[in-house]
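Provenance

Sequences were taken from public entries as deposited. Structures were produced by running a predictor on each sequence independently, with no templates supplied. The record for Gustatory receptor from Daphnia pulex is shown for reference.
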Amino acid sequence: MATQVSSPKDQTKDRQTLPTAECWEWSIRPLILWIRILGVDLPDEDYRHHRWWMYVYGGVCFSSHAISQCVILHFVLYEWKQVNNQDSGEFIYGTVTATWNWIVDFMNYAIYGVGIHFMLLTLIRLRWNRLKKTFQQFQIIFTEENYVRIRQISSFSVIYAILLILGLAVVNLIQQARQGASPRRIFITFMSTLSVIYPATALVAYTIHCYASSLAFELIQKQIELFQIELANDRDLSLFLQTVKRKYIAVCESVDAINHCFGWMLLLSTSFVFVANINSSFYLFSIEININDFAFLSFSLIHATQLFFSADRIRCKAKDFLQELLRLTCDEKFKEFQLKMKFVFLDMVRSIPQISASGYFNISKRLFPQLIGTTLTYFFILCQFQASEKNCNLTK
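Predicted structure for Gustatory receptor:
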């Protein structure tokens, strides 16, 4: 059932069960603990006296991560120089095109992993307090049941991120072992895969906040549906409109906080997804089909789906809410209040929230066809380069 406007007694009961100021922090606590394990100390009152230990631990984690990725890139470029024998025409993957695709793929994952890790330690950490305070305003919309639901989603999301990266790492190790790769190359590939745990965790945090905002819109919409039933009890329409508008503004502020906190992460993540899909599709369909390349292509597509559709759910729920309010505005039962309701509706329409990548472009499911089109375009271009290169080698 929908969330109803609580009476003072109900609100007192809820606050005794879960302290109002801590409801949101409690619901995402599994995510916060996991991020701390990764060495990122997001602001929290309960852990203030342990901060300097977290600073040291976080610095060690980031230094180790950055150094390992630099070693990986050095190994990739060194192997390229060693194996690339210009006299014999032998390359790592048979052609220069395929070999450079392999190098760009490693560079893409390294830049993405270290970049998101750096953002977690700087931009996201510095902006986390504003995000947290904004979502604490959902106390006027959420019930205890909603907070419990978000806590469950937080727990499952952390498990999902861990299993996803471990699955990729295991598949990668099995494939490398089958190909008879050297222990050094197996270790380098394994570490490159593990570095994606930071972007996966950041994306999980972004997804949870997007879900909470879309859920808030859904609950407000249900309140409008309930209002028509309560009208028989002489419900004050003016008070109801003020309450709905106040809740709508709170949700819009939460979307603004998501943009402020995760905007640069979304920009880097979108760029990564486009490049990763091009690299993986070229591996899979033009070089040699194996389970490893299929796993990484699936990962990039799952990453893109999570990135695009989480943001689009907010927009869809906001539009559903406004459609329900418009239907109420046009109802003949409220003729005397239609002018006031029309002004409220127009104010809300002008401020429909949208997730964006730091203002450069909006994040929505409309990016998915662009991703497919861009991937196919560059895939055919790379195939043409490779085909012409093979023809030149045969001629020689």
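Residues 237-287 form the longest helix (51 residues).
Residues 1-21, 85-91 have pLDDT under 50 and may be disordered.
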